[in-house]
Amino acid sequence: MEKIAVITGEISGRIWVADCDGPEAVAWAEMNLPWTPVKAVSRRGKHYYYLMPEGRSIRNGVNVRAEAYVQGSSQIDVRGEGGYVVVPPSPHSDGRYLWEVCGTWEEIPEYVFPSAMNALEPAGEGELLAEEPSQGELTYAPVSEGERNSRLARLVGHWIRKGNSCEELLYLAESWNRRNSPPLPDSAVVSTVKSIVRSHERNYGVEVQKDLSVVTLFSEEPRETDAVPERLVTPGGLLQEIVGFVDRSSPVSFPLFSVAAGLCLLGTLVGQKIMTESLLKTNLYMIALAPSGTGKDSPLSAIETLMTETRSAEEFLGTDQLASAPALWKRLYQNPCQLFMFDELGDLMGGMTSDKKNSYKAELAKALKILFTKKGKSSKAYADTGNDFVVHWHHVSLYGTGVPTVFWKSLSAEDVRGGFLGRAVIFDCDIPVVRVKKELDLAIPAGLAAAVSGLAAFERKFDGNLKKTPRPLKVRKDRSASAFMDDFEDKYVRLANEHKNDRDGVDVIYTRVSENVHKIALIHAVSRTGTIPNAVTLPDVTFAAELLDWSVPRTVRKIRDNISFNPQDAFRRRVLKDGRERGYLTAKEIYRLAQDCTAKQVEDALRLMETAQEIEKGSRGAGTKIQRIYYVNG
Length: 634
Fold this sequence. Notes:
The protein is built from 23 helices and 20 strands. The chain is an alpha+beta fold. The strands form seven sheets. Strands 5-2-4-3-9 form a five-stranded antiparallel β-sheet. A four-stranded parallel β-sheet has the order 12-15-11-16, sandwiched between helices. It has a three-stranded antiparallel β-sheet with strand order 18-20-19. Strand 7 (91-92) and strand 8 (95-96) form a beta hairpin. Helix 3 (148-161) runs antiparallel to helix 4, helix 4 crosses helix 5 and helix 8 (255-269) runs parallel beside helix 9. The longest helix has 25 residues, at 538-562. It is globular, with a radius of gyration of 28 Å.
């Protein structure tokens, strides 16, 4: 493919680019350059797009005083008037260029490098100014596109002068940004807050208490969307046939949940028979969350019927009643390749994540974590009878359902960090309750039955020893699929690194994404071919990647919306949740929600929420019966 280039300068609408080549240059840019919604990335660095201010001309420069900022082989180049820059999807010597767009082109800010870097008149450090407005009153009202960055900068400056810490600034900025339509990307909010803090410390000598390890905003992450993309629920092949059977045989069904259960089924049928080139098995943990009566449990009965009618249930279908880890190991000792399906998984999770010592279900969670990824060919398990035994090449898949409120309530911050959630693919969907069907079609299509029977009967290969250890076939990706996965994995490695210090532990969610995509892509290849595939192709990996790109942002948001990380955080969440139901809370009700908070923590939290205009003080009654209340803005 030929390279594509854009001429920078006046001819392209005054665009100029800071070309940061190398990790040190990129690190310096992320900390010092203003946020821009448009970046291009390659394996070696990033391009940051800005506008020349009206009446100013930025010249080209190579290695512009980079030694003052970066070390090693990194450098910073300027592509200004008369220059050019290569743009995606042009090939690169180490791969290809990709866009990182988290906003609109209209939001590209005007910016000039300091004079020592481009021989222009002094232009400060390129920070956004955080002055109080000279005219008009500073309001927290939402603003339209094109005004969001400047308004946020002014608000942050105002909050700094009120003595707020960095954590409080980020909380206030996030609360304000949610009211905009559309809101700024979260990466822009974080960047603006950091920029204004640096500006005030340098220009005014203001010291801001910093604890950026508590930042919980997103940064350059896949965008969350509510609607399920049509291509995810019309995957074709055997998966499409399974979706159709679940729908016809169920009073109520939801296609995405049927896809999830179908992936677990197919992955189990080919378990111990094939694996990825990196030795990953085809086992999955899928969790479907939705209100009662929306069809989340329809795949449970439909898949069981399908497996029973095709005579694969006896070999591959595990029990839906697991009370302990020994029970799980005993089941796998009888048959090491099993699909377990649980209704109301939240109840099970509550016991699995219990902090009580010697909790049977806590040990069950530990066992499931081991079983998900361990690449060894055997595991030693200890039964409650005192006898130990070895399970050879275990292969466990799980499809569980639950009500969102029960499921998330059962979890703590430690459960997120512990890694079980990272192993699972969670589909938390807002689905309306619909009328049940009057007639059901329980007939299994002959083609689907034959395909399921064929996959179940496909002969395993074993090592030539008495233990008969399975020897799965490696199914490799073709060239285009491998290239796509390289770029996809890079994205989630960056996200995991960006959030590794976040208090909520969501980096473990990003860490496991690629592993699940490899597995789902291989299972999709099985669905597409109807048998053991010769190779995993580009359509297989793009389907798997899009499925996780849709699921992961929602999971991260749900974690941050539902799981508290300190008493004040939990208190704020309870106040907003309970108060929005009727519009206000009394002072007595407010303090009843405080639980583990001290009086000072409560007052600090209420002050912060008032500043963010989430609550407003008021009163009701008359005479000696005046009662203080807090209105909660919805």
